[in-house]
Design goal:
- It is a single chain.
- The protein is an alpha/beta fold.
- About 35% of the residues lie in helices and about 25% in strands.
- It contains seven helices and eight strands.
- The strands form two sheets. It has a four-stranded mixed beta sheet with strand order 1-4-3-2, covered by helices on one side. A four-stranded mixed beta sheet has the order 5-8-7-6.
- The chain is elongated, with a radius of gyration of 26 Å.
């Protein structure tokens, strides 16, 4: 049995293999664009792995505690790896000015990505400034479920939301129903870190019961709801989610990014998605930078 490759060597080899594969599949592709894309992805992952723990006294995190220190460490590593490469030469006359410009473009790209703010720990929710407030709040999203207790196993036990209301509600019969045919439903409300907005409601019609929905969906469609939940402990919490009865995994956690609101940067996100026990599509994310609309905070 051969010895398993060191993670560094495996990642190094697979990055080169991926670049060659992309080039082989598209003979018109610019090798420099492929290389820049690989570098950008590698830097995103490097930044994700170098998130400070949030303890200002942590000596291990001190070298990467600021955007400037991360940028400096990235520059150092890029120059070190370049000098160790068989394709590197510091002589401009041998390799040409275009290649040197390209190399420094890569360094600049790394420095730009290093300045992305990766926020450790909990991203605190806060109201918008008073001058921007309007008369409308998105108060609650209520999900019609088969069984409140089954849904609580996901939203309360796995995701950690707090139940703030759980009552049986009785309504009089509708016109044409029997006089004693009261309508009964159970409503549970759960919150995360805000006591007024962002509440999740779980509504079960206990009498009369609702018919079973059609077949399970494979992807969200027009008219469907997508819940987006942020979890600062995504990797650990995802295992609780996975173990919840009735949950279907749509996407395992992975690192991705979205364009920044001004289009001049990116927002790094750990993304995953599941179908809850009643078939609602839920994104479970870990936001690694400022949320859209909070840039001024």
């Amino acid at each position: 049995m051969s010895e398993q490759a060191h993670p560094f060597d495996e990642a190094f080899g697979q990055a080169i293999d991926l670049g060659n594969q992309i080039a082989d599949n598209d003979d018109k592709a610019d090798l420099w664009d492929i290389a820049d894309g690989l570098l950008a992805g590698a830097v995103q992952y490097w930044l994700y792995s170098r998130q400070p723990c949030g303890d200002p006294r942590c000596e291990e995190c001190l070298p990467i505690s600021t955007a400037e220190s991360r940028s400096a460490e990235l520059r150092r590593l890029i120059e070190q790896f370049a000098e160790e490469s068989q394709y590197f030469t510091p002589d401009r006359r041998q390799r040409g000015p275009r290649l040197m410009r390209r190399a420094w473009r890569a360094v600049a790209l790394a420095a730009s990505l290093a300045s992305v703010s990766f926020v450790p720990g909990r991203l605190a929710a806060a109201p918008v400034p008073e001058a921007e407030r309007g008369p409308v709040d998105v108060r609650r999203t209520t999900l019609v479920v088969r069984d409140v207790d089954r849904a609580l196993a996901f939203y309360r036990d796995a995701l950690g939301l707090k139940v703030v209301y759980d009552q049986v509600i009785t309504r009089p019969p509708r016109e044409g129903d029997a006089p004693d045919a009261d309508r009964r439903m159970r409503l549970a409300l759960l919150r995360a870190n805000d006591d007024f907005v962002g509440v999740i409601g779980l509504l079960e019609y206990t009498s009369p019961r609702l018919p079973e929905p059609p077949n399970e969906a494979e992807r969200p469609g027009v008219g469907d709801v997508i819940l987006v939940i942020n979890a600062t402990d995504l990797d650990q919490r995802f295992e609780r989610v996975r173990a919840t009865p009735g949950v279907r995994i749509a996407t395992e956690p992975y690192l991705t990014s979205y364009p920044a609101p001004d289009g001049k940067g990116s927002i790094a996100v750990r993304f995953s998605a599941v179908w809850d026990p009643d078939g609602y599509f839920v994104e479970l994310n870990q936001l690694l930078g400022p949320a859209a609309g909070t840039e001024g905070r």
